[in-house]
What we know:
Elements: E1 2-5, H1 13-28, H2 41-55, H3 59-62, H4 67-75, H5 83-104, H6 106-127, H7 139-152, E2 157-161, E3 169-173, H8 174-192, H9 200-234
Helix pairs in contact: 1-5, 5-6, 5-7, 6-7, 6-9, 7-8, 7-9, 8-9
Transmembrane segments: 77-97, 109-127, 133-153, 165-185, 197-216
Subcellular location: Membrane
Protein name: Rhomboid family intramembrane serine protease
Amino acid sequence: MIVRPAGPRVPATVTHALIAACFLVFxxxxxxxxxxxxxxxxxxxxxxxxxxxxxxxxxxxxxxGSARALLTPxxxxxxxxxxxxxxxxxxxxxxFGTMSEERMGRARFLGxxxxxxxxxxxxxxAANAGSTQTLVGASGAVSAVLGAFLCLxxxxxxxxxxxxxxFLPLRFPAWIVLLFWFVLxxxxxxxxxxxxxxxxxxxxxxxxxxxxxxxVRRLRxxxxxxxxxxxEGDSQP
Length: 237
């Protein structure tokens, strides 16, 4: 599924900076295959394994009390395992991050992205505490952006390409596309279990965190506006 909101986009500094940082880290790392410092063949595989264990989340080590381990959910947000992994995450971040950043504001959006991404990865690690599989990627943070978008901008129309619909470009309200995505993640999580592969649980946790944050923020905004509106109404002759 490929999506994009209809209508013109306004550049979002934080979203674009996060995308640029992820691309830069990937190009300099071993997974891109473009940095000769990591060697080739077997040497590249060994270097890649060591690289991911250093910067990614290892559930069995995260809650060991090590300061370095506690930082890995942050560094893992900028590390990706393949071109497909990177491009998929960055596509969704570009599509939904731009409008979410506009609605939240730059500083708030950056804090939201980092905190929810960290918590999503930590939640996956807690649920798989004995695992030594390394977890990397911005999926948890990007999923939080999707959840926030669902709450903040549910009626924005999105152009979507679905494989089972012969990739015909169809436009739907964002709430339909995002709820469909969420259900797919839940089904995939049930089938995948806790073995190696895509961390669907991190997607689900991130999405829920993003939606809840946006919901609470919207409630607070509504409560602040109501007294002001009531005061203005009382002052009318």
